[in-house]
Write a structure and sequence with these properties.
Blueprint (H helix, E strand, L loop, with lengths): L1 H24 L1 H15 L3 E5 L6 E6 L4 E5 L21 E5 L16 H13 L5 E6 L1 H12 L4 E7 L18 H11 L9 H13 L1 H6 L21 E6 L7 H10 L3 E6 L6 H4 L1 H13 L14
Parallel strand pairs: 3-4, 3-5, 5-6, 6-7, 7-8
Antiparallel strand pairs: 1-2, 2-4
Helix pairs in contact: 1-2, 3-4, 5-6
Length: 309
């Protein structure tokens, strides 16, 4: 019996050490795995559809009007793990891995905004009736393009610190090559009072930025201007809600206010002490704001933006 106990203890020690090493060496990979497991445990099912650009993977759960949650560049569906379960009771929630992200194709080669748009377009087209699009960062850009091209399919567009205009911080790089560059980028994305990422996480951000979707996207930077909607926001005729983290210094409140002023039908609420990805940084406040937005009446009459205080 004592021998069995020692063997079990040795196995447990190996498992613990392996987990610690994995967290230390690849914290982003471990966090993504844990977030995706959270979605599964909450009742989401992992599925996919076949498209001309390859399989597009998504998580689906709940019943009701369809809400599609689109994550930002370099992330994956698990980014919504702290928000999506709260929506399942009233909505059919679909959370794609954007093309070239997570488990969605294409897995290799340069990655363009057009390819990512095609993946979302195919995913939305597979749903009967209208959908509600909620997009963060790059997801907001893609959602805006979809609403412009397919207004008949969009019930409501919710932009979360993202959109189809040129960014207002050209000094911020999303493909940092050093720990200090990564620290500067992360500082601009989060509220100053939020938890500071340790160096080993910053180092992993640098590693991922040199080989992952962000680098693949940067290889098609010359194509990106044709997907911007500078001077064309009036072509988005569906109701738009902007839910904005006030502390974002990647896409600031001025960026959001410009969109609000140019969109034909837009309203804005802001979140204090939240940055570029409020679904990750302040999920409780963001979930409450998103839930209220989704339940608010849809009106064709444009009203002035109102900031949540």
């Amino acid at each position: 019996m004592q021998k069995i106990i020692w063997v079990a203890a040795a196995i447990l020690l190996v498992v613990v050490v392996t987990c610690v090493i994995a967290v230390w060496r690849r914290p982003l990979t471990v966090a993504a795995w844990m977030n995706r497991r959270t979605l599964i445990k909450a009742g989401f099912t992992k599925s996919h559809i076949s498209t001309p650009i390859g399989p597009q993977v998504f998580f689906v759960g709940g019943n009701g009007p369809t809400v599609i949650l689109l994550h930002g560049a370099g992330d994956q569906a698990g980014a919504w793990s702290k928000v999506a379960p709260a929506l399942m009771g009233k909505y059919r929630v679909i959370i794609p891995d954007l093309a070239g992200h997570g488990d969605s194709d294409p897995k290799l080669g340069p990655l363009s905004v057009g390819v990512i748009f095609a993946g979302v377009e195919a995913t939305a087209a597979s749903e009967p009736g209208k959908v509600i699009l909620v997009g963060n960062s790059l997801g907001g850009w893609i959602a805006s393009l979809y609403a412009q091209k397919h207004p008949e399919k969009v019930e409501r567009l919710v932009l979360v610190n993202g959109g189809p205009l040129i960014g207002d911080r050209p000094d911020i790089t999303l493909t940092p090559k050093t720990r200090e560059e990564a620290r500067k980028t992360i500082a601009a994305m989060f509220d100053p009072g939020s938890f500071q990422l340790p160096d080993y996480v910053l180092d992993d951000i640098v590693r991922e930025a040199q080989t992952g979707p962000l680098m693949r996207l940067s290889e098609t930077a010359s194509e990106m201007p044709k997907y911007l909607l500078e001077g064309k926001l009036n072509e988005i005729t569906v109701p738009v809600n902007l839910v904005w983290g006030e502390s974002d210094r990647v896409l600031s409140l001025n960026y959001a206010r410009k969109m609000e002023s140019e969109l034909p039908n837009a309203q804005m609420v802001t979140l204090k002490r939240c940055g570029h990805a409020p679904q990750l940084e302040c999920p409780k406040a963001f979930t409450a704001a998103l839930t209220e937005v989704l339940q608010s009446p849809i009106t064709p009459i444009r009203s002035a933006g109102a900031e949540a205080k």
